[in-house]
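Severity: low
Component: inverse-folding endpoint
Summary: output formatting inconsistent between runs
Steps to reproduce: submit the following structure tokens with default settings.
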């Protein structure tokens, strides 16, 4: 681990000022990605700005027909929330599927989406549910937020404050997890609601993506059978020691059917 300065932010504005004053500084949320990177000397920030003391960035609340989750809310809190389970049970199921209890109790939704790991669960949840990412400067539609592998639309010095999820008519999440890490080899969120009929895929490609053919079929008939003849090309999908691109392409359809079954069951 390289030497760095540690600063515990006193407010969101305080964190933003520190971040703006040093281009080499990094935000610390749950630390599930940053701390291992520091230990392995894969990251060398000049300063780590800890948001852990900012109660304003935590918690889950209902705003009209949306559920708003603070950026510093742990995955475990989302999974256990009676409000989330009642209004968007697919989101609670997604959060429950992340990692193990230790990861779920430390990792945060804001940290996860800011990192945008190609195998993370939340990107599929945000895009599949048509969520909006709130920052200290603006609001960004989930479709525009995730821009590439480990890349997002966040500007320099911009801090995620919350995610707003419109309550869907129905939604389901299914994933084929890596048995060791629990990251998604392929994960699919299928939903119908205010954002329309949406199918979002994580794990299969360099970044979360939607499958238009599946969305069109489900808009006509929201059932697993509607996806029987739809396949996803293996071109440009991820391939590694865990699964080939062709296998991931096959899993997209399988997981999409399971997600629709979960949504309708």
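Observed output (run 2 of 3):
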């Amino acid at each position: 681990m390289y030497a760095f300065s540690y600063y515990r932010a006193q407010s969101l504005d305080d964190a933003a000022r520190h971040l703006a004053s040093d281009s080499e500084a990094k935000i610390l949320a749950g630390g599930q990605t940053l701390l291992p990177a520091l230990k392995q000397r894969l990251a060398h920030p000049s300063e780590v700005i800890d948001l852990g003391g900012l109660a304003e960035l935590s918690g889950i609340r209902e705003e009209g027909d949306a559920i708003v989750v603070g950026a510093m809310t742990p995955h475990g809190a989302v999974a256990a929330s009676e409000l989330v389970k009642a209004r968007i049970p697919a989101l609670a199921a997604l959060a429950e599927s992340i990692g193990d209890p230790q990861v779920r109790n430390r990792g945060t939704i804001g940290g996860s989406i800011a990192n945008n790991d190609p195998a993370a669960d939340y990107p599929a949840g945000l895009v599949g549910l048509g969520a909006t990412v709130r920052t200290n400067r603006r609001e960004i539609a989930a479709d525009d937020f995730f821009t590439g592998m480990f890349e997002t639309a966040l500007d320099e010095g911009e801090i995620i404050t919350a995610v707003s999820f419109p309550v869907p008519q129905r939604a389901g999440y299914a994933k084929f997890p890596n048995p060791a890490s629990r990251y998604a080899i392929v994960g699919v969120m299928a939903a119908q609601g205010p954002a329309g009929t949406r199918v979002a895929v994580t794990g299969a490609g360099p970044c979360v993506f939607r499958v238009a053919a599946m969305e069109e079929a489900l808009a006509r008939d929201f059932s697993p059978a509607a996806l029987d003849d739809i396949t996803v090309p293996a071109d440009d999908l991820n391939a590694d020691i865990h699964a080939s691109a062709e296998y991931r392409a096959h899993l997209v359809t399988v997981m999409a059917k399971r997600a629709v079954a979960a949504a309708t069951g």
